[in-house]
Amino acid sequence: MQRRAFLVCSGSAMGLAGCGFALRKAPNFAFTTLYSGLPESSPLGVELKRSLQSGGKVRVLSDGRQLNEAQVILDVLGEQREKVVLSRNASGQVREFQLRTRFRFKLRTPAGKELIPETEITQQRDISFNESAVLAKEAEENLLYRDMQSDIVQQVMRRLAAVTEL
Predict the structure, then answer these.
(1) Is residue 10, in this structure, part of any structural domain at all?
(2) How far apart are CA 68 and CA 76, in angstroms?
């Protein structure tokens, strides 16, 4: 019985290895130091900094005096959250909102060479609204904003990893 279980497990492992399956690894960046002017109060900036430093290969500088130590500069051109009414009922009460998050940035060297041109990443989610569950809907809204923020951070990380040479 043990032999059969071993054969089944090893057969599954070989099948996964043969198909090219691999767990996602931390990206390799072409730089080791990055300057970012994102404010410390920005939740997106905090998550982006944490994601960049989690691999242990990139040091994120945020002090303006360290600007000349950085190999690349991440210029944040805008970070914006919006809440737009999508629909109303017959009496004019809001029934549905659309939440949007926009993040605009570019990446350049200290000498001014543009590595990633001005880019805008936009995320949006629809959320229903009910006056009798305002607190629950507010919590759901915050959760959706956090989810969009994580998506944006992952997209920025992939774009930064796509830079192959400085």
Answers:
(1) no
(2) 18
For 65, list phi and psi in degrees, rounded to 5: -70, -20
Q: What is the pLDDT of residues 108-130, one digit of tens each?
A: 998 888 999 999 999 999 988 88
Predicted local distance difference test score (pLDDT) of residue 53: 86
Query: For residue 98, what are the contacts with CB-CB under 8 A and spacing of at least 6?
Result: 83, 84, 86, 124, 125, 126, 127
Q: Which domain holds residue 128?
A: 24-161
CATH number of domain containing 71: 3.30.160.150
Q: Higher confidence at residue 144 or residue 14?
A: 144
In 3D space, the residue among 146, 143, 125 whose CA is nearest the CA of residue 135 turns out to be: 143
Q: Match 């919006």 to its residue by tokens.
A: 82
Structure tokens at 147: 């989810």
With beta carbons less than 8 A apart as the criterion, state whether 50 and 74 touch: no
The domain tally of the chain equals 1
55 occurs within a structural domain: yes
